[in-house]
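To fix ideas, we quote verbatim a fold written out as tokens:
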Amino acid sequence: MKKILIADDEHKIIMTLEYAFRKAGYEVFIARDGSEVLEILKTQIPDIILLDIMMPNVDGYSTLAEIRKNEAYRSIKVIFLSAKTGDADISKGLEMGADAYVTKPYSIKKLTEQVENLIK
């Protein structure tokens, strides 16, 4: 079964994405900030992470930097899912090693298609 980790501090976004990806046949893990992402990665290696940038405690940029430093996590695809829509934000995210950058608001259908394409 494909595994996805959804990291966002907004409850409604988590609920919507969790429902959509469970329905699409994914095993779903939830984190509310970057420190929870890193805790989950100690026991689970998802195929893909949907990562918000603006989260409490440890933000998405710091989380991605930690993920990309660890050899064990090299195969994990990461999509930034953020309300930061500026060109500089998008460039920074991609330069840091995100596989894609999706701005909020987004289409669930397009997002699930993008996830599918990335993990093929």
About this structure: The CA atoms of residues 66 and 106 lie 26 Å apart. DSSP finds five helices and five strands in the chain. The helical segments are 11-23, 34-41, 60-69, 87-95, 108-119.
